[in-house]
């Protein structure tokens, strides 16, 4: 009987831990917002990225009462050269209660960021990202959006700068963790 209980408990813990990982089936294509249709923006030629398309950028235990910072970098080798990505996530003191293991991934096929664990903040987290050597022109209009169940929502105050094949956001306030993406 003890073995049955222990085995059941083990599988419950294993399942709950695995449910935090982003899956390949979480695709953005075809989602539209109530205001307009957006298309995911791939980092480079997504079909020709030599490394994995979904990559962990940062993981760190943060004390919410003290705050903290995570930085992530990645290089994606494509047929058209290297795409460079750099990110920074800052938590102010009091952003959340207790300690949390904060982690986030980039999905290169959709230029999206997956943040875990799902949580709301008392003080918004501050996120910045820069992607260099992108195949975009200065005239392309790129947006930074929250990816919700009902579609895309523009993130308030997220001004995407596009210049010389580089897209960037600086100091974007995230009120909660979920999935966010660059779209056009």
- Rg is 18 Å
How large a portion of the residues is in β-strands, by DSSP E?
Answer: over 45%
The residue fraction in helices comes out at under 10%
Q: What's the N-to-C terminus distance?
A: 57 Å
Q: What's the story with the biggest beta sheet?
A: 6 strands, antiparallel
Pattern of helices and strands: HEEEEEEEEEEE
Number of strands: 11
> How much is the average pLDDT?
80
Principal-axis shape equals globular
Structural class: mainly beta
Number of helices: 1
- Given as residue ranges, the uncertain stretches (5+ residues, pLDDT < 50) are 1-35
Strands of the widest sheet, in order across it, are 1-4-5-11-7-8
Question: What does the model show?
Answer:
The structure is a single chain. It is globular and about 45 Å long. The strands form 2 sheets. Strands 1-4-5-11-7-8 form a 6-stranded antiparallel beta sheet, with no helix packed on it. A 5-stranded antiparallel beta sheet has the order 2-3-6-10-9, with no helix packed on it. It has one helix spanning 2-18, and strands at 54-63, 68-78, 81-91, 99-107, 112-116, 120-132, 143-148, 151-154, 161-163, 166-176, 179-183. 28% of the residues are buried. The longest helix has 17 residues, at 2-18. With 184 residues, it is mainly beta. The protein contains 1 helix and 11 strands; from the N terminus they run H-E-E-E-E-E-E-E-E-E-E-E. Strand 7 and strand 8 (151-154) form a beta hairpin.
């Amino acid at each position: 009987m003890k073995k049955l209980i222990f085995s059941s408990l083990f599988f419950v813990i294993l399942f709950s831990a695995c449910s935090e990982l982003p899956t390949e089936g979480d695709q953005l294509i075809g989602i539209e917002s109530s205001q307009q249709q957006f298309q995911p923006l791939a980092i480079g030629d997504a079909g020709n990225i030599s490394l994995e398309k979904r990559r962990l950028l940062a993981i760190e235990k943060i004390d919410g009462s003290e705050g903290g910072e995570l930085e992530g970098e990645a290089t994606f080798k494509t047929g058209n050269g290297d795409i460079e990505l750099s990110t920074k996530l800052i938590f102010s003191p009091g952003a959340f209660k207790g300690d949390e293991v904060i982690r986030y991934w980039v999905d290169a096929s959709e230029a999206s960021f997956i943040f875990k664990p799902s949580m709301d903040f008392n003080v918004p987290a501050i996120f910045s990202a820069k992607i260099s050597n992108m195949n975009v022109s200065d005239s392309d209009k790129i947006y930074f959006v929250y990816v919700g169940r009902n579609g895309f929502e523009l993130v308030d105050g997220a001004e995407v700068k596009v210049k010389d094949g580089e897209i960037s956001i600086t100091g974007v306030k995230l009120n909660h963790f979920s999935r966010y993406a660059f779209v056009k």
